[in-house]
Amino acid sequence: MSAPTTIPDPNTLETSGPTTTVGEFATVATPNGPFTVVADADHRVLASGWTDDPAYLIALVHRDLRPESLQPSTGLGPITDAVSAYYDGDLAAPSRIAVVQRSGGAFLGPAWDALREVEAGHPVTYTRFAELAGQPAAVRAAAAACARNAAALFVPCHRVKRSDGTLGGFRYGLPTKQWLLDFEAGARPQADGT
Hints:
Blueprint: E1 22-30, E2 33-39, E3 45-49, H1 54-58, E4 69-72, H2 78-87, H3 108-115, E5 124-125, H4 126-132, H5 139-148, E6 160-161, H6 174-184
Parallel strand pairs: 1-4, 5-6
Antiparallel strand pairs: 1-2, 2-3
Helix pairs in contact: 4-5
């Protein structure tokens, strides 16, 4: 079972402005290049991806969750440990880390939660992903949920493919997406150098 992904709709919260004032970030070396994680003060992932630029990731975070400032860290404990564990073969490690994302729509939260249930080595189509998210006709919205996901790897949008078996899109490039899918399928891919 994966850790929670989303928080309640902002209209039901009694806070105003950012819910996190200070965030931390750390970068882990991976076969796919540097992987940076931005976390809030409660050690929940706000954003992550194959980049060494935390500013790029912060721009992906919903404005109500975006930290006012970021501090570098040499590691984020269990969060960065989960990234290393994933690359060491514990493919479920990222799913045990809490993630917080927010959107203005009713579909994205359940969709991101559904993505965390897609098992490594068993990619699904956008159509199947829409079904898992509880709205079988929302195939375009399912694709949008992947595109708007700020927490790559922890919310594994790379595990969704087109109905014809092609990769579709991926914020961090199709070579990285293919590498991850091959790795999760048990192949031993070469580093892609990104």
